[in-house]
Design goal:
Blueprint (H helix, E strand, L loop, with lengths): L1 H10 L10 H24 L8 H20 L5
Length: 78
């Protein structure tokens, strides 16, 4: 998931507006992928929290989805 997000963000880098917070896209994309990676690694290892890492991944994914929906519904008219 993080690899695909990196490829997409790299290919559309010239489409970004100067005032856009580009770092926010990276935080949302990698902020959801890294806890999922930690959840899978700790589940395989049998230590380190296991499925508890999925909670921040789901919360960050929901926030990212809400931000993207808000941009599509409201900000696109500007």
């Amino acid at each position: 998931m993080a690899g695909l997000a990196t490829v997409i963000l790299y290919r559309v880098r010239h489409l970004h507006h100067d005032a856009e917070l580009r770092w926010l896209r990276y935080v949302v994309d990698f902020g959801a992928a890294l806890p999922m990676l930690a959840a899978s690694a700790s589940s395989i290892a049998g230590a380190g929290g296991g499925l508890y890492w999925l909670v921040p991944a789901v919360v960050i994914s929901l926030v990212g989805g809400l931000v993207n929906s808000w941009m599509l519904l409201v900000e696109i008219l500007r």
